[in-house]
Amino acid sequence: MKRYVGTLFSILMVLGLSLSACAPAAPQVIKETVEVERIVEQTVEVEKIVEVTPVPEAKEGALPRAETMYFNGQQWGPVVGWNPYSSSNNNAMATSQGDSSRVTMFETPYLYNMLDGEQYPLLADGDYTWNDDMTEITFKLKEAAHWSDGTPVTAEDVAYTWATHVKYNTATGAGNKDYIDTIEAVDDRTVVVKAMLDDEGNAINPLLVAAYVSTNYVIQKAWTETLEERVGGDATAFLADTGEDVVYSGPYHKFFTDDTKVVLVRDDNYWGQDASMWGKLPAPKYLAHAIFKDNAAGSVALAKGEVDVSQQFNSNIQLLWLNYGLPISTYLPEAPYGIGASLPTAFYNLNSYGLDQLAVRKAIAIAVDYPTIIANAMTNQSATFDQVPRSLMNPTPGEQAMYDHEAVVDLQWAGNDIEGAKALLDEAGIVDTDGDGWREYNGQKLSYIATCPNGWSDWQAAIEVVAAAGKKIGIDITTNYPEWSVYQTVVTKSDAPLPEGYDIFMMWSAGAGPTMPWGRIRNLLSCEWVGMANNWSGNWGQYCNPEVDALIQAIPGETDPDKLKEIYTELVRIYLTDIPSFTLMYRPQSFHAVNETVWTNFPHQDDGTEPPVPPMDCTDGWGIACLYNVTLVNP
Amino acid sequence: MKHTIQQVFRSGKFVLGFSIFVAILLIVIVYPLIITDPPLAIISQGTFFEPGIYVNVYDSLGSQPYTLLDDAATNRIASKLGDKERLDMKEWLLDYGIPESEINIADTEQLLDLWENNYDPKENVAGMTNAQRNYYVRLNASLEGLLSTEGTIIAVKNADTGTLEEKGVVAQSDYVNVSQVANVRVLALGTDNFGRDVLTELVRATGVSLQIGFVAGTIATLIGLTLGLLAGYIGGLVDDVIMFFTNLFTVIPGFVLLILISFSIGQERRGAATIAVVIGLTSWYWTTRSVRAQVMSLRNRDHVSLSKLSGHSIAYIIFADILPYIASYVVMAFILQITSGILAEAALSILGLGPRTTEVPTLGLMMNWAMIYQAHILGKWWAYFPILVTIALITFSMNLMNTGLDQVFNPALRE
Amino acid sequence: MKGYRKYFLNKVGWFLVTFVCAFILNFTLPRLMPGDPVAAIVSRLAQGMSDATGVRAIYQQYTELFGTNKPILEQFFIYVRNVLRGDFGYSISMYPRTVADTLKSAIVWTICLQFPAIIVGWLIGNTLGALAAYLRGAFDKVLMPVSIFVSNFPAFGMAVIFLVIFGVVLEWFPTSGGYGFDLIPTFSWGFMWSVIVHYQLPFWSLVVIAIGGQAIGMRSMSIYELNADYVKYARFMGIKDRKIIGYVFRNAMLPQIAGLASSIGTMVGGALVAEIVFSYPGLGYTLLNGVMGQDYPLISAATLIITVMLLGANFIIEILYGFIDPRVKAAQAD
User: Fold this and answer.
1) HSE-up of C155 (CA within 13 Å, CB side)?
2) How far apart are CA A295 and CA A145, in angstroms?
């Protein structure tokens, strides 16, 4: 027997290798006789071939497959805690506030829908209203809303949550305290949000005030007080607490967590099944998320049907259904497969030698081969700059309508313009004086380092293309990929010029939200961030233009849509003229790919839902409506 | 010496290993001279192009067409409308409500006719998933014009008026001779996720990896040899101290040490040479141990005692009396160190701690990127499999050489 | 036995000294890495804070907590004191989880994956090598090249190929995880079976390489022994082959046992790659994450554990060697 082990092994290897191109196993085929009625009042028996993929029996200790929805791409390490005040609890499935907050366990008063830009009521009852001076927002809470311990959600909870954020200087508190004065409970069910006023009595930023109601959770006052007592008023301990005893209002809560997965289970007493909200419970009983080591492992699981909803970047995802016939789909059936919402941007370090010259900045920006970035780095999961010419707005129709395209069409370059770039540089007198093949500016050779964090593969591929453009126009651009922990510490320090090695660096920009595109423009261009020691907001290249700042400040208070359009157009014009940074590609708010082996009826283009359900992995903002629409493939 | 070399080359295993190794070396050296494209140039817009011959369509339109009288239509139809597609179309039609008696999947014309008249993308068939719906939309698009016998018209926009003017017709029986087309590119191993030519990159990467392995191996062997000789021959306190350091290195897992050091150096300074040096500095300990063991058994031999009595210096004794006897062993250890150096670099790169991506490609880096872009899941075998084969061939050939040498120096092991 | 005592004392003495030095190295090396991990946590926590004093206050708090503001010598003594109490401190990258908590769950998987893989690989490999040496002929001719090929195949290559062939294409085994994706750990037979099934691919990808290496080594040693004079003499004397073989392999085994110790060390690297490719829980991946996040407490603790395991294994094997190898006993006599 052992004699043949070696030979057997070699044969096995050869066999296996030659099988690499095979498709996975085919599902079972069951023939069913089905009766179908025709208009001709004659029942005809039609033999119908139905493909059934056998759903495994629930094993002891196993989550029943037909009651569980599996996710990937949100949670990359073990869950640390369940405290919604904390930003270090690494609990993506339950505590993730943002423009489209994750409302599986905790809830916001309103839900943002990135497809139509509206805010729909969740805990709130009906729309909110501004007062005449535009200084206060008032909204009521639903009668039916109550916490997991049975007590009703009251306006006091909303008020106390805000007061706590301010008192302990959480990220929410710090980010909003300049714009929101107080939140008060007029009575048990009515909430008034008072904006911070400027000298003339106008709200400083009504946009951010309106955004607060769909971005931040409402947390129970009683539990918050328990937590405060427990930590004895110590802010650090408050934020570090793991909150295992937290009281929530959402449909799901903790079921199980360890190093390999986190599982949430549905609360069948969830208030949202009341007719005033969804009218029923969400379909999946369990929401499970296995912790994968990297993207590849997650993709394999998606392909095998072990993951239903995938939020990670699956490169070349279209091959899974084109070549392998798997029941996998994305929101759009063709490229770009998803709705672009954010603009990953390459920032110029304006203090670098030569980058203060507009000619250099523009030459590099117009020479980059953007179609290759989108085809190679994003594997076509982004709209091209031919389809959506560059601006400060994301590709959604809502934002695209906010500026005048005609006025800036000459400034919107498409890329790959090597000749144009060379001409620009020649005109500016930046030529190769010593014959080494690289251009010099005032005698010094122009050489830059393009960088992004190590391991962010699609960004790294994009930066490679940027560096390649430099070579074509005579500017020496090399790449470098520091670790994320080093990169973030360097880039976010905006109180001093950036160190060497960060000449052209890549960072994200804001996605879709109720304050967009204003929020994104402010993050990209506003001078208010320059000088901060810990700048996570934006404008890391330290660009300062008072004209731009004035325009940015004018927008929140402006209500005339025509005037707004003018202001936005002007901002786009300045951005495309000064080029302190340039967009490299469009990126979806969240990647959203689904495997329809067990569940179906996920959101897709033209699916007929009203209001349209956004592809937000069934958990964010209005996207959570998906959990109420999904059905089993084999009920 | 000459006799030893003659014997070495008579060993079958050694010759086989040696020839594989030399073949690889030759390819690495000669290939860049013939094909001068830079290995890191991005040549494709799009990821993972399959290996094959790429013919420029625009140039083939302008080339001389030849008419061949074979039946091109059957192949054309078969490629778009295979058995699976026919069954799928039939299923959709059945779901729509067409009685089965009217559907005959063998009759292409009738099937296509039925399909054209009845297919409606907006139709909501019960129980159909979104993925299936999209599949039928794609199937429908691919069937357009399948049965037509007319050629395709090539039209060019008139520069003055902007209207399309007919420039020529491509008949269905037109063929071009590939050697007459101006732009034909042979991509024997396709492209990778960056759009780079895998074969050119692979050749360059093999060269770089071999260099790294060589440098690392040399450093490790030199250190190991020196320390082993000193420890083995001089003995006493020197021996104890050196063994202590060796034990230390054995006990702290070398791999962890490697990761720590690579991370500390940081990406800016992590060139290929630096990595080679670091690998060399962390893998010398087992050479030291084995050399020391050999030297210890040698030091009591007669000729060594003779030299000692003759009053020769320690250095002379080491070089003249001991070194030649362990030379064979050192050569084998050297080969093994090269192999493990190459493997260590590959393993580091897979973890993302290898040399900079944009300077030179290495085998480990190519493997790393292929896995990040999920080539092994998507069936893009050309992006990772040739790399594994190359690594295996290099290590295999070196080990064969090693075994061959072993047999020559230890006649007992000969077959 | 008297000879042994000196041998043991010598070994024990050296191991203690090695342990102390390794301990010191384990402490200092991670702290030599550039970059300030506390700054990394603070930036994460202080997002949105435009108030510089606020940020600085938080920074102070965390450096107090992790003790990074004290001189290194003082930090070392605090570290020693804590370790003796079993308190490895808080993990910087996974704050507020403690290091002990993080490692506890990971280490079980690693030990269960690595040690059986090493032992099984060693046993099978040596048996095959010995058989090849004894039987010669066709078996040897096939085994040799295959072993050479497989033994130096890179660990990640083996892992990827196994994953592709057996997991993705043939679908005989699952492709990721320590246990079924839909299972909650309980002491049920279903759960145990799932763990065993998920264990196969990472296990075999490590074992196959180990087999190759061991087989070659054992074969060389066995051939060497089989040609020794005493074997020939015993054969001429008419002693049964079976008895001779017992002696032969006992002698051939000695270097292999020493090799077992060093292979435990190299296994760490191999297991790390297997864990990543198969998404298998374990110490290697935790360690890698710790390195990427500059998490000193985690790295120090993890390397300490690995060091202790290695030292312990080495120590046991050296003692064992002392019993098995009569030359050691003889050497003690002079």
Assistant:
1) 27
2) 38
Nearest to A461 by CA among A479, A483, A488, A449: A479
Residue range A406-435: mean pLDDT, rounded: 90
pLDDT score for C114: 78
Give the one of C32, C153, C265 whose C-beta lies nearest to B392's C-beta. Answer: C153
pTM: 0.81
CATH assignment of B2-29+198-413, among 1.10.3720.10, 2.60.120.10, 2.40.50.140, 1.10.357.10: 1.10.3720.10
Q: How confident is the model at residue C154 (pLDDT cuts 50, 70, 90)?
A: confident
Any long-range contacts for C76-85 (C-beta under 8 Å, 24+ apart)? C76/C24, C76/C27, C79/C27, C79/C300, C83/C304
Residue extents of the structural domains in chain B:
2-29+198-413, 42-72+152-186, 82-143
Neighbours of A176 (CB within 10 A): 22
What was the ipTM of the complex prediction? 0.74
What are the start-end ranges of the E strands in A355-458? 440-441, 444-445, 447-451
Cβ within 8 Å, pair C289-A77: yes
Q: Among A209-223, A402-416, B328-342, which is the least confidently predicted range?
A: B328-342
How confident is the model at residue C45, as a pLDDT? 63
> What sign does the CA torsion over A265, A271, A274, A276 have?
negative
Instruction: State which residue of chain A sits closest to C149, comparing Cα positions.
Output: A10
Q: Does an H or E element contain C59, and which?
A: helix C52-66
Average pLDDT over residues B93-122: 82
Task: Confirm or reject contact between A20 and chain C (CB < 8 A).
Answer: yes
| Residues on chain B touching C229 (C-beta within 8 angstroms) | none
Taking CA–CA distances from A12, the nearest residue in chain C reads C165
**With an 8 Å Cβ cutoff, are B381 and A480 in contact?**
no
Cβ atoms A527, A550 nearer than 8 A: no
- Out of B266, B384, B413, the one facing C160 most closely (by C-beta) is B384
Q: How far apart (Å, rounded) are the C-alpha atoms in residues A551 and A222?
A: 43
In Å, the largest CA–CA distance within chain A is 93
**DSSP H or E run through B276:** helix B272-281
The confidence score (pLDDT) of residue A220 equals 93
Alpha carbons C137 and A123: distance in angstroms, whole number? 81
- C53 and chain A: CB distance < 8 Å anywhere? no
Shortest CB distance from B263 goes to which of C224, C291, C307? C291
Q: How far apart are CA A47 and CA A502, in angstroms?
A: 67
pLDDT band at A3 (very low <50, low <70, confident <90, very high): very low
Distance from CA of A371 to the nearest CA of B (A): 7
Question: Which amino acid is located at A138 in the chain?
Answer: T
Return the structure tokens found at C313: 């294994």
Other chains touching C, judged by 3 or more CB pairs under 8 Å: A, B
A240 close to C (CB below 8 A): yes
